[in-house]
Each structure stands twice: as structure tokens, then as C-alpha cells.
Amino acid sequence: MTTAFDTPPVHFTLPGQDARGRFVRLDSVLREILAAHDYPTSIKLVLAEAITVCALIGSLMKQDGGQVTIQAQTEGGIVELLVVDYRGGELRGHVRFDADRLARLGANPSLFALFGKGYLALTFDQSYGKGRYQGIVPLDGDSLAQACESYFTQSEQVPTMIRIAIESDATGCRSAGFLVQHLPEGEEGRERLHVRLDHPQWEHVSILAGTLSHGEMLDPALSGRDILWRLFHEEDEVRTVDGAPLVKGCRCNIDHIRDVIGRFPPEEQAEMVGDSGTIAVDCAFCSRIFHIDPANPAG
Prior knowledge:
By secondary structure, this protein is α+β, with helices and mostly antiparallel strands. 29% of the residues lie in helices and 29% in strands. It has helices at 28-35, 41-58, 99-103, 111-115, 144-155, 200-209, 214-218, 224-232, 254-262, 266-272, and strands at 10-14, 19-26, 67-74, 79-87, 90-97, 118-125, 132-138, 160-169, 172-182, 239-242, 247-248, 279-282, 289-292.
């Protein structure tokens, strides 16, 4: 069931400032993804942030069939692995963590307390045979959003601002995300912006964008276009278009699982059989467990 808060992402460009951006809100989609797991509040919040960031970055891809995966992994951290991905408006995510160590933390642990020394990997799978590329940055800063900003600045030399607002209550979470960045096409014939972060166009846009408050982002009375008007109404032109609707999109498939199991030799399949007499395969993203009959793994 969707709510008034659920709206398609708004894509926008500021032609006069060589900038582009996205604004997204997640309510029922986020609640559905989080409801698949009995996560503690601190884990729900960090996953909610990651999913919102992924929706922003994923919507930057030009081809519908492309996929963006964000993976945070640590060395000895309480959160051992966080994975989210986006493809064509479909979102999914999960977290693996040490519950005993988490229980010893306070109510609002910092990013460092959860992840310790870690890294953030962003993988872009491009459609139509255009290949895959990946960028890796240290998991520094106070948030996953800051780490993703560092990725764009360091790996792609594209100044980027990402803002995330999350509201949590007894029924779950809802979130909003805002991203704006300098268009790479706008850099032609000029010094690369990673050595000129004080470029007047980017400085102008980032100052305006920096006035956006969490309250505005989460206010259901303000549409995405209302927010963009508040920020950029003095610009010569603001172009907007709705992006793909956002939905939960776990891609676990019983036929695919059967096919994979069927490729193992019979003796290895026998080792996989549990007490139930079946091979149990669980999907970390949606917490579904598939039971495969080893006598007939293909059907």
C-alpha cells in the first residue's frame, strides 16, 4: 500500500549552472524492505540511509537495465557487511552484524562504532554489454552519505552533495534523499574541479543546496518540485522530470536456485541436505527460505 509520501524520484538539471540532481522519498517501500528482517533500531537506520543513498545514485544511471550496488565491509567491525542495490527502480538490501557486540553499544552508535575500519565499494553494472566498473573509498566520515560524496569527488572528480533525512517511529522508517552534483560535461575546456572545488558555479549551487533542512525534506506537504522551487527559484531555468517509481525488488527466483543446485554433483548435493530432507537456500535480502528436493532439484 502506497502513501502520500511515496512519490517518484524527481530528476532535475540546472543548465545555467552545469548541475544535475535527484530528490527521492521512501515510505512504504522502505518499510517493506525493513520488515523482512527483525533488525535492531540502529541497524534499521543505517540500512535505511544506505537504501536511500542507493536510490539517489542508482537513478543517475542512463540505461534502465543498469544496476548499482553499494557494499560496506569492515575488518572486525560490528557491522560485518552491508549490501544494497538498485536496478530500474527496484531496491533491496540487507545487513550482517554481530548482535552480541551491538547490544553492548548505546542507543545511537556512531558510524565508526558500527563499522570500525572499513571501506565502501560502489559497483556500476552497465546494460547493453557496456561492462562493469567499481570504485572503493575508505568508510570515513559521520555517515554513509559522506562516504559516497568522497567516492564521487575522489574517484570520478565530480563534486557532489548528498543529504539524507530519516524519521523513525514504532511502525518503521521513512526517508528522503537529495543529491546534486556538477555535470562532468560542464568541465570541458576548464581545469578539473577536483583541484578547483571553489569553482563559482559549484560554490553557488552548493550554498543554495546547503540551506535545505531535514524538516523540509520530510514534510509531506512539500512535493519534490516545491522543494526545488524553494532552493533554485532564482535560477534562469530548472528542468524537472519524474524518474522510475521505487519498489522493493528482491530478485530471488526458485527456478534459478534449482538450476544452480542442479549443477552440483550428486555427492555434493547430498552434503547440503538438512534435517528436513531438503536443501534449504535462504535469501539474505528478503529472508525467504527455499527448500529444494535433492531427488528432483530441477523441478
